[in-house]
Amino acid sequence: MSDEHEIDDTAAAEETTTQDGAESDTSAAAPAGEPVSMELSAAELAKIAEFDEALEKFEGQKRWSDYIRTLLQKADLYRDPVMKANLYRAAGMLYLDRSSNQAEAIKCFERVLEVAPNDVESMTRLKEMYEKRRDWESLIGIMGREAEMLDPADRPMRFVEMAELATERLRKPDVCIDLWKRVLTVDPSNAAALDALSNLYERAREWEPLAGVLEVLCAAHTDQTKLLADLQKLGMIYADKIGDDAGAVRAFQRVLTLDPNDRRAQEQLKRRYVALKAWDELEEFYAESEKWDELIRLIEKESETKETPDSEKISLLFRAARLWEEKKEKPDRAARAYEKVLEIDPDNLQAAESLSPIYEAANDPRKLVAVYEVRLRHVVDPDQRVALLRETGLLYEERLRAPSRRSRSTEAFALAPHQEVVREDVDRLSAGVEGGVTRVIAAYSSAIEGGSDPAEVTELRMSFGGVLTRRAASTTPSRSTASSTTRCPITKAPSPRWPSSTGRPAASATCWASTTGAWSSRRTPRRAARWPTRALRCS
Fold first, then answer.
1. Nearest alpha carbon to residue 7 among 82, 87, 74
2. Which residues, in sequence order, are bridge partners of residue 495?
3. Tens digits of per-residue pLDDT, 304-338?
4. pLDDT digits over 76-96, tens only?
5. What is the helix (H) or strand (E) element at residue 437, kind and residue range?
6. What is the pLDDT of residue 438?
7. Helix 207-220 and helix 191-204: axis angle, to 10°?
8. Which of 221, 291, 456, 507 could cysteine-pair with 227, CB 3.0–4.6 Å?
């Protein structure tokens, strides 16, 4: 009977010890909104009576296996969580004391926690058995249950214990990572958690979470050696693993702040600036070392890649040209960059304007006139356009010896026929240029017909007559045309050619007189050549 008393005492002690804990979890076992009836039906009570008889019988016969099995059946029949927890706990203790069957005992104590989640004794028993059996994952689970029961201020230490145990004993990075993350939820700056997560994320090749951890570590480091190492690692992860060039720039900038001579950080920073198209920042970076040749080569190389859009190529070439001029004082090299811009965009005004002073200084009229032509396609202001047209025309006339291109002079005349220098340019056009007289006649005719100021129109007529007189005086007509008839380009009236014996421009004098209405055709040409000045004074 000693065994019987031992079992009864054990069961009574278990019930007394855990009754309060089990009662506290009774409501938790019931589904929400559905009251649970603890009363047993008549059939269930009769079944329990049978179980009690069997238990007494098995106890007397020391048939402990049958006794425990019947005890568990009796526990399953009860609805009251307290009764169920007490019976499961008693079964677990019997497995430990009578059969040393830890596996079955563990099942019993786990069933206790299903109906009484805060049962401290069951947790303690399970922890001991999990540790003996090296079931580290289950042990960590029980430790987590205990941690939830602790005061919030005491939880961080328990979470650290769990995470350290998982890191040392488990080969499951996911479990370890989750545990260390729980540590950070209650202590975001925990150094042990950050270090452990750094290693775990790196082994798991989870680069973005690793970068986040390294950012926190770098912000908290006081040891410069460790800080430099973590910044280097962070920069390379951003650059090579994540593809975050902006993050890499931030990391390597901090490296250079601590160690300005770090070659690796310098090279990486250059690459990241190029990848980000951060040309201003790249130029600022090179300004410290004044390695302008290297920067210009890098920019020009980037402008030559097929992947670079034309708009970006133009921007890069302008930057290279500016650096050649400002930093290296080599306008000839800048000119090459501007010329490449015009190859991409033949109408680029900025490139043409930048090349103009360079070609002027280099005394290269052929290239200069080409950029003038580009500028003419953009200039709208009349005064500026006239000035540029004259410059272009003079280049063709005096420097390039291309009189056939003097049409720029007539264009300038069409815009500003009242300017004396423009009229002089047109006067030269009529001499020695095939078809020049025809173009001059057309230019004057258009200007006179379109004039609104009578004084200006009169001045134009006088000037035109002078042009014709000078051209006629320098021309010897052929015998076949000496007696032919010509017409005035303005009045359209027939005028006889001058006699071949004298070669004097009688017809031109007649035309002049008819256009001004103030002079006689009987005047001699020699005298008439001086009349325009007198006419201007009279008017």
1. 87
2. 486
3. 999 999 999 999 999 999 999 999 999 999 999 99
4. 888 888 988 999 999 999 998
5. helix 436-449
6. 77
7. 150
8. 221
Question: Are 69 and 53 contacting, i.e. CB atoms less than 8 angstroms apart?
Answer: no
Does residue 434 sit in helix, strand or coil? coil
Of the pLDDT bands very low, low, confident and very high (cuts 50, 70, 90), residue 501 is very low
Which of these, 19, 28, 229, 224, lies nearest to 119 by C-alpha position? 19
pLDDT-wise least confident of 217-221, 270-274, 416-420 = 416-420
Task: Report yes or no: 367 and 382 within 8 Å, Cβ to Cβ.
Answer: no
In order of 313, 331, 356, 528, the CA distances from 343 in angstroms are 11, 18, 16, 54
User: DSSP assignment of 130-179, as one string?
Assistant: HHHTT-HHHHHHHHHHHHHHS-GGGHHHHHHHHHHHHHHH---HHHHHHH
C-alpha angle with apex 389: 387 to 395, nearest 5 degrees? 105
> H-helix or E-strand containing 496?
strand 494-496
9-33 pLDDT, tens digit each: 344 434 433 344 434 343 344 444 4
